Protein 1
Amino acid sequence: MPKILVTGGTGYIGSHTVVELQQVGYDVIVVDNLSNSNIEVLNGIENITGIRPDFENIDCTDYVNMDRMFEKHAGIEGVIHFAASKAVGESVEKPLLYYRNNLVSLMNLLQLMPIHNVKNIVFSSSCTVYGQPDELPVTENAPIKPALSPYGKTKQIGEDIIRDTIHADKFYKAIILRYFNPIGAHSSAKIGELPIGVPNNLLPFVTQTAIGIRKQLQVFGNDYNTPDGSCIRDYIHVVDLAKAHVVSIERMLKNKSKENLEIFNLGTGRGLSVLEIVNTFEKVNGVKVPYRIVDRREGDIEQVWADPSYANKVLGWKANETVEETLRSAWKWELNLERKAKES
Ligand code: UFG
């Protein structure tokens, strides 16, 4: 089976994608600098699939070592590029770190791909490129709005870099995937989201509060123009998201598209408020999530959810998991982390 390079393959979405790729037979090489992930994730992957992916501890901004890596693993046919910094708040404080990590890594890959005869790349983008859309649900044709953070800008510029590179040279094929909000964990609870320090994102904060690591969840605002006043997002099971990468890489390898560049929204098409997430989490898992309403968080978008019909039709992919099952998987993962912490 073809060799696929997964950058950021020990990270949250990356690790779930490695599992899905291996399970359909791909030979996976993981490149990660472990800046926001743990080497033990490889054990989790191996426990699920029975295969330990080849691993290279390299920073994707390091051109020379990336070149050597392509040489060593000659025959790579596709790249799935997750490796990036992703904390919105941190990006405001350290913009250069974000521009360097997120853009230099992408440019290195695009430069090295033709040298090593690698045509295909899947790029992790985000619904953040739409800002607050004028129309909901949001389609791929919605205008790109000015980004509110350097992180968001790196995703917009990353898309532009790919677009311009392909415009200049039809050697490349790319699929840009715009993720909505991935949550949950693998059903085995052997891999999941492992935030380092205090979580920025909703779900890890919810699970850590339910288990007692955090005292109270802060719900950022209940005065938005939404039915219950809290913000609305399209929460998608991370395994559903991971599967879309397998379909995308296959689409390029099998030349199923005439286009060299395609863009897809990856969401469920269902918008849920912060309070709906908290209430459903409590109900399906039989646990309490103490919370209080606080001020709005700067930069938050009021409401956004996907129109995934283009991805559904063209990729033949659909997010299948219910939100209940997704929230159960998140809790199972948190319980498993607690059990492991007690054992060690
Ligand atoms: N929220 C809370 N309390 C928290 C954390 C979040 O109420 O402690 C609310 C937020 O205000 C927001 C919703 O939960 O309404 C979701 O927030 P997240 O931080 O989980 O995710 P965002 O929708 O803000 O998405 C951002 C970026 C994405 C990026 C994602 C993951 O916009 O591009 O974080 O890093 F992919």
Note: The pocket of UFG is lined by residues 86, 88, 126, 128, 181, 200-202, 205, 217-220, 231, 233, 274, 297, 300 (CB under 6 Å).
Protein 2
Amino acid sequence: MSSSATILVLNGPNLSRLDLREKSHYGDLDYPQLHKFIEDSARELELSVDIRQSDDEATLIGWLHEAADKSQPVIFNPAAFTHYSVGIRDAAVLLRAPLIEVHLSNPLAREEFRHTSMISGVASGTIAGFKQDSYRLALIAMKELRRKTQ
Ligand code: DQA
């Protein structure tokens, strides 16, 4: 991973509507606030980020292809696609730089259908359950991976 590589931060379906979702799972921030929190955290850690959100599986797969072509590191909250998208998993396998899976909530402490992740097995690691801080912890982990591989 090159030291200047911009980290692609991808967010899946319904995360743009955090304002309407259960605060007990997802925290108090709406999506624009979460976006700003990730940007501010990256700035503090002297990391460059490109933050994107889509409800569309094909768009997320296209962004993963782009990251694979550019050997770009990825922090990814696939949201509901985590639990069933083989297409997203197959695209994640193509990545050549680290992939960190993040979740605001802790899916393992929730309904059983959330206990399966298609992504965990192809990610460098997973951070879940710390609400917006999951992203900050993922940025710290990415920075540490970068330091070790330089
Ligand atoms: C989520 C957890 C998923 O189970 C859920 O479908 C989401 C958000 C999280 O960030 O906690 O949409 O990925």
Note: The pocket of DQA is lined by residues 14, 77, 79-80, 82, 103-105, 107, 114 (CB under 6 Å).
